[in-house]
Amino acid sequence: MKMKNVSETPVENRFRPYHIAILAVLIVGTIFVARNEHGRQDNVPYQTEEGSIFGTVYHIKYQYKESLHDSIQARLKDIDGSLSMFNPTSTLSRINRGESMKADSLITCVWNMSRSISQETGGAFDPTVAPLVNVWGFGYKKRQIPEKELIDSLLDLVGWYRISIHNGNFCKEDPRIILDFSAVAKGFGVDHVANLFRNMGIENFMVEIGGEIVAQGTNPKGEAWRIGINKPEDDTICIKNDLQEIIEVHDGALATSGNYRNYYIQNGRKIGHTIDPKTGYPAQQSILSSTVKAPSCAMADGYATAFMVMGMKRSQDFLKEHPQLQAYFIYADEDGQYQTWHTPHFYETEKPE
User: Fold this and answer.
1) Which H helix or E strand runs over 304?
2) SS3 assignment for 247-274
3) Whole-model pTM above 0.90?
4) Tens digit of pLDDT for each residue in 243-258?
5) Which one of 21-30, 90-99, 269-278 scores highest in mean pLDDT?
6) DSSP character for 147?
7) Three-class SS of residue 345?
8) CB within 8 A of 35, min separation 6: which ones?
9) Domains with residue ranges and CATH for the chain
């Protein structure tokens, strides 16, 4: 058999199979590197930020080439300067004192969201509940059980419908009405920092303020972020950290509300800080801890509070009609034992639509 001389093969065809193989390897390698950088980006470190804001602490972890401490602080300062009841110069404080009724963009956004949650939950959540919270001893007042007459008089100052915004200014039916966004401010602050990261193209991060969380992408181990839900054990000094459940989150916002860390005992009676805006009294429901996943952390924060007031049956019925929300409740049964209930898709790792 005559062997074909390699030199007789046209130059343009001689090495084509090898070129194709090498090119394929290079393409696959490029795709692998691109995917690696798009996902975990192993060569980019995770940064950690910790501090205090809104009377609580925050923990932030994100994957970026350098610290964004100053940018994060600027975002948190914006929230504090707008929504804080503890900052005497904040927009909210000035409005509550009647010094200025001018609404900035942040407080307007939070007001509109709070009003919507109030309407949808039949007033179980209400940003004007502050006078009642104070008189029960969870604001600036002495901790004592108030007289019924006082509660009834303060109910005239509670109700989201008693306040509105016209031409950028808050208008109150009564100048004594006080706005309090404490139930959503932490979640809104978390969203504000998370949006900073998203706008910068950061894909892997976890932002937590006082237990309210937005997590996206993966943790430093390349895994989903693992978030713990505390057991609702009575603990006013925050030293008990036993976990009831651990969930994984790739892209989601969640918040928890409960009375197990903010309460006092008066005449043998446990007084929790979640006040029912309709009755003026602390909510007496079987739900001990309400954890909500929602499209935003501020929404999760607000609905988690509302469900503490609404109780199991009303909350379960509400959640059936609002699939964009997922919830996990720890409640006490008739024997006082802890039980849990959750919506069908609570354990899904992605953000609710």
Assistant:
1) helix 297-321
2) EEECEEEEEEEECCCCEEEECCEEEECC
3) no
4) 889 999 999 999 999 8
5) 90-99
6) P
7) coil
8) none
9) 46-342 (3.10.520.10)
